[in-house]
Amino acid sequence: MSFAEYFSGLDRDSLSMQLYSTTAADVEAALVRPRGDLKSLLALLSPAAEAYLEQMAQRSVALTRQRFGAALNMYIPLYLSNLCANECDYCGFTMSNKLKRKTLNSDEINAEADAIKRLGYDSILLVSGEHETKVGIDYFLSALPLIKPKFNYLAMEVQPLATDEYRQLKQAGLDAVMLYQETYQPNTYAKHHTRGKKSDFLNRLAAPERVAQAGVDKIGLGVLLGLDDWRLDALLMGHHLAFLEQRYWRSRYSISLPRLRPCTGGVEPKVLLTDRGLLQMIFAFRLFNQELEISLSTRESPALRDKLFALGVTHLSAGSSTQPGGYAAQQTQLDQFEISDDRTPAQIAQVIRSQGLTPVWKDWQGQWSN
Amino acid sequence: MMQDKLVIADHSFDSRLFTGTGKFNSAKTMLDSIKASGSQLVTMAVKRIDLQTGSDDILQPLVDANVKLLPNTSGARDAKEAVFVAQLAREMMQTNWVKLEIHPDPKYLMPDPVETLLAAKMLCEQGFVVLPYVHADPVLCRRLEEVGCAAVMPLAGPIGSNSGIQTTAFLEMIIEQANVPVVIDAGIGRPSQAALAMEMGADAVLVNTAIASSALPVEMARCFATATDCGRQAYLAGLGQVTKQAQHTSPLDIGLSQSVINQDSSLTGFLDDPAFRGR
Amino acid sequence: MSVSNESALIALHVNDSRHQVPQGTTLSELLAILAIDSDSVALVSNGQVIPKSQWQNIACEPNAHIELFGAVAGG
After folding, report:
1. Is residue B98 part of a domain?
2. I need a labelling partner for A47 at 20 to 30 A (CA). Which of A173, A292, C14, C19 fits?
3. Is the ipTM reported for this complex over the cut 0.85?
4. Per-position DSSP letters for A26-83, written without gaps between them
């Protein structure tokens, strides 16, 4: 069974009803279950679970420490290109947005990589818009050999590719792929993705499986919280996660929790995700899956990020630029989204250490396969 | 009572207690015990016939008792021999089900993981329904599933030891990760241990020595049937979490609880702080 | 010494003991001669597992090593 088949068998309306009719007793039953499962995830994502936030927090911290120790893994995004052939109304790179488009050439890639190395990073996330012809597999295969020698861990967040293309990239040093469904509600998805290949909901839904079949080490899922009801989207992402992990056991998994932010364009969230809700999501997923990596970007304010470091997050970026060429030379107009936390990596590392946690820059050594 | 059938390959079982035919003091005791256990899947071995003395035909009475036969490959020391025995058994009993067991170590009868995986792959390709007996190795069980095994049979303890469940942590991993039924085999010595195995979430248990070596095998078989069913029902009902701290089952007095909560140790209290400048 | 074909005997090894049977004896007939119920055995001839459905059609080969297996109690 493919995930698309599994997904079509889910009754989303029923799941939504269950979320909103969850009782305190259901939440308490979920909290005492020794290991998380989809049933307990549903209960812990429900409105009824908000009253148990402190208890969930205590358990989330304990489980995270047990599995990850005090480590917080540092990574940084490198935007290769903001060229995009999709129309997505929440994103600064959307096709119709009149901003200066840039794709880095080899010299510029090297300059960016070197600038990033000076910040102390060893784990990098390559990001691009989605442009099949100009920034496709050939471009990526030429970029990786420039970048991988300088970084031990290399992730990519680009358009969905074919299984064989992921295999080729893996040969070239690819360690992880981040591929966010944005929303698991097809109708809402269609409203926000109106043109280009990304408007194909099912193609995107099937992509993480292709990554897994290619044997990539880490697969990252995510939803853009606010496009639709975040509780249901989070739950469906949980289903996606469970499906993949059950079948593709040689890979590890991560989730990202981007909340809708103002960008050049502006889209209002359909359902507001408060700070309380964001915490609930982190805790619910930590209790659902102790091994899951939970990633926090610079979209959130410094005050909130500082609180979240200890509560269940395992990976975070700092000193990020969301524009191609943004490390070597500052520019203003090209951002994908507004960054809220613009503290430097050194500043953030200091905050992390002051909380008794450890910022980890290198967590990987490719020895035999690269 | 809701249907809770166990499905392995194309066959559906009502009973989650599988039994073996070994070590009974007589064929009659063996057959009576199996009937008392309610078992619907029974294992037996394959050996060269002694032409002089012949042997009891154990097969026909089992077939008459409507029990499914599961020949094992014990005696095989490597994959090649195991495949050979499986082919023999298939011809003899007209079943393509086989319990794959390869233990070259005659002292502890530990299963050989390498030969087992090799044999499983060959046998699955030849159309057998393979139930491999292995150590409680989660990765090995994944690999066996990948080559097409219909179930996995990780051990609780050494064969014939009545040792109880020694491999709990690993059985839990296997049960959590398996996409095929998990049958806990070898080492279960008491009905309570069969219940425990089922409470862990195993799909079935296989018991032989504990029944056969009992003073009253037929009675013991009945006890195992009850225990297996009980453990399964408890698992389905949902077991409570073991906690080190007491957890109140009655609500705390509201006034008391508020004074007991220490603001400084709260992880989420900052959300209510008007001075917090989050979003 | 000449012996007619119908009465010619061939030698066989069955589970390591020597037997003599008339040439042309089928595997099914061999089992009957040995008083073994064909339902409960498997037969191997010169290292090959012979399908039960073939026993009526296959004649014993001279000097064949035949092995008969049965089910026995085991876990």
Report:
1. yes
2. A292
3. no
4. HHHHHHH-SS--HHHHHHHHSGGGGGGHHHHHHHHHHHHHHHHTTEEEEEEEEEEE--
Which of B33, B80, B91 is the best residue to mutate to test the C interface, defined by the most C CB atoms within 10 Å of its own CB? Answer: B91
B21 touches chain C (CB under 8 A): yes
Contact A276 B271 (CB under 8 A): yes
Q: Are B89 and B44 in contact (CB under 8 A)?
A: no
Q: In which band, very low, low, confident or very high, does the pLDDT at B3 lie, cut at 50, 70 and 90?
A: confident
The SS3 call for residue B2 is coil
Q: What is the pLDDT of residues A34-68, one digit of tens each?
A: 788 999 999 999 999 999 999 999 999 999 999 99
- Angle, helices A24-32 vs A53-68, to 10°: value is 20
Compute how many other C-beta atoms are within 10 angstroms of the C-beta atom of residue A274: 14
Among A88, A254, A264, smallest CA distance to A159 is for: A88
Asked if the Cβ–Cβ distance from B23 to C73 is below 8 Å, we say yes
Indicate the pLDDT class of residue B65, thresholds 50, 70 and 90. confident
pTM of model > 0.90: no
Q: Does B33 touch chain C (CB under 8 A)?
A: no
| CATH number of the CATH domain containing B57 | 3.20.20.70
Quote the CA–CA distance of B3 and B198 in Å, as a whole number: 17
**Cα Rg of chain B (Å, integer):** 24
Distance separating alpha carbons of residues A35 and B176, to the nearest angstrom: 9
Q: Are B98 and B90 in contact (CB under 8 A)?
A: yes
Residue A33 lies in a domain: no
**Rounded Cα gap, residues A62 and B5, in angstroms:** 38
C23, part of any domain: yes
Instruction: Report the chain A residue with the minimal C-alpha distance to residue B276.
Output: A303
DSSP code of B264? G
- pLDDT value of residue B256: 37
CATH number at residue C42: 3.10.20.30
Which domain does C60 fall in, by range? 10-70
The CA distance from A199 to B161, in Å, is 61
> CB distance B241–A303 less than 8 Å?
no
